[in-house]
Amino acid sequence: MRDLFLTLFIFGYMPWIVIRPHYGIFMWSWLTYMTPHRLTWSFAFDFRFNYFVTIITLYSIYKSKAHKLHIPITVATSFWILFTIWVTLSGIDAIEQGAAWTEWTRYMKIQIMVLVTYSLIKKKEHLVFLVGVIAFSIGFFAFKGGLFTLLKGGHFRVLGPEYSFIADNNTFALAVNMTMPLMFYFLETVKSKIIRLLIVFHIFLCILAVFGSYSRGGLIGLLTIAIALWLSSSRKIILLTFILILIPAAEMIMPEKWTQRISPMLDSLNIPHTIPANWLLSPRRIWENNEFMSSSFSDANIEKFETNQGLIKEDAEILRDLSIKGRFDAWNMAKLMSKDRPVFGGGFGSFSQESFDRYTPGVFRHAAHSIYFQVLGEQGYAGLIIWSLMHVATIFTGLWVVIRCKKDPDLGWASIMARNIIIGMLGYYSSGLSLGLAYYDLPYHYAAILVILKLIAKQEFLNRNNHIKTHEANKPVRTNHTFPLTPPKETQRPHSPHQSPNG
Questions:
Q1: How many CB atoms lie within 10 A of CB 252?
Q2: Helix or strand (DSSP H, E) at 355
Q3: Domain boundaries, the chain
Q4: Which distant-in-sequence residues (6+ apart) come within 8 Å of 338 by Cβ?
Q5: DSSP 8-state assignment for residue 494
Q6: What angle do CA 452, 458, 464 make, to 5 degrees?
Q7: pTM score, two decimals?
Q8: Out of 31-40, 220-229, 458-467, which region has the weakest mean confidence (pLDDT)?
């Protein structure tokens, strides 16, 4: 029933996309960030709804006379185009050709819809609705995760939607950190007190969801967001009180094992509590293995435990990724690979076992565990520079909007939106220090929103200047000529012949 309802809703929505192409962006964003089809149980679970939405949106643009595909040329978009070209070139010389072109296809699908966003989203109403769709889509899982953590006392780990960019606990925490500042945008712009109280409660659940993910990188991002919000706020005392109430309240809910998990000392990690309940490996078996419990997360110990206890390969890999040493191994491999291939790097999908065997023999494969080392390893030093400049230009674009529109009565909303999106990006950069999600959709969408905000602001300023010039041109011309008090002699009325000159 759920599958049928979702399918009828999506396909029933598509005629509206033909009439109003920008509706396609809203539907695509909802399907991408919320993945509602993954909440079904039958045929809709693997159905490619996004494919049909993209095709219908592109067709409606093709048929429309008011909309054409175009890229606004700015510094940020120029680096975006250059980076897109760069990842294509790196794919040609990639180490893992099959994986590289699979990931390249996925990346390009994202960029096509970013291009469509540039082409269709041009008004305040469109931007506010798009931001609302993104906030709702990821906020839905943050609400569920926070409520689950609250009801279960934080004893179970919160994960993201299955088969998505944010399926695991770390990437889920990163996505929640990026989305949380959007809640503050609506908190500042909505006037209803009831809705604002609901938003405050939702922010609290977002914090709980990050805590419940047991992600140390997520906590770093959460701390960064709290500091950035406080520094950028004009109501620092109120916001500080808000932060000092919500975050300690969330921490009080979490159990002792959560403190052990986020501790930087590996010996304080409690292994049974870091194993999800749905693993085939029994937590008691790990707890009772004193030899393994007393050892660190070295590859040798895990291999020994795998041999003696029958640990399945997938579980062994996850246990390795719990190790901080695994992050250092991945970063070291990325540096060695970029040193060997400094121009184009290893290409998409190069964090494979073959690459680890080639550059760091004897080390088991790990994820990149850093957006920076992921780009360095896969795109080389030049690719990392282009990627970094793209993000720097994006932040400066947003800062331009924040500064120029802050005190403007008509564009104040743009300043608030840009400020909170920048804070969300800061959460991405800080969480991404230890989490590998360099090609996630949301940062590219945020960059597009910031560029569109700047274009809207510049158009508004231009319209005002043109209006002032038109008003000045239509004003009556004033001269310095002074008129005499009496008319000229030749214009005086002649005397009547029957009237004396003296009257």
A1: 8
A2: helix 353-359
A3: 1-65, 69-120+338-466, 136-266, 270-321
A4: 345, 346, 376, 377, 380, 381, 384
A5: P
A6: 140
A7: 0.81
A8: 458-467
